[in-house]
Amino acid sequence: MFKGGTKIEIFARNHNLRFGIFSIGNELGESYDKWLLKLECDECGNMLHIGQKRYKSKHKPNYDLCPRCIESKDKQ
Q1: 47 and 33 inside one domain
Q2: What domain count does the chain have?
Q3: Are residues 30 and 57 in the same domain?
Q4: Phi/psi-derived region of residue 51, left when phi > 0, alpha when psi is between -120 and 50, beta in every other case
């Protein structure tokens, strides 16, 4: 249905965009393309690359964690 796309998300928001997934939704902001370029771990500040595994908080909106921060939290 979408050339080159294998997945589609129909209720997309800025905080859950993923590379390679066609995203549509009425809550996408005007600057979602710029937002994608500035994704970082909210715990340590390291840049997260699109497609890299990241973890989302269930309790804090738009809170992303890198795998290293998750591992350190699990050890505590």
Answers
A1: no
A2: 2
A3: no
A4: left
Q: In 3D, which of 53, 58, 61 has the Cα closest to residue 18?
A: 53
What are the C-alpha distances in Å from 21 to residues 10, 12, 14, 17? 10, 10, 13, 8
Q: What is the dihedral of CA 5, 27, 43, 41, to 10 degrees?
A: 30
Tell me if 8 sits within 8 A of 25, measured CB to CB: no
* Domain shared by 43 and 75, yes or no: yes
Which pair of tokens denotes residue 16?
A: 């859950």
Question: Residues 45, 25: one domain?
Answer: no
Asked if the model's pLDDT at residue 52 lies above 80, the reply is no
CB 41 within 8 A of CB 66: yes
Query: Same structural domain for residues 3 and 34?
Result: yes
pTM: 0.46
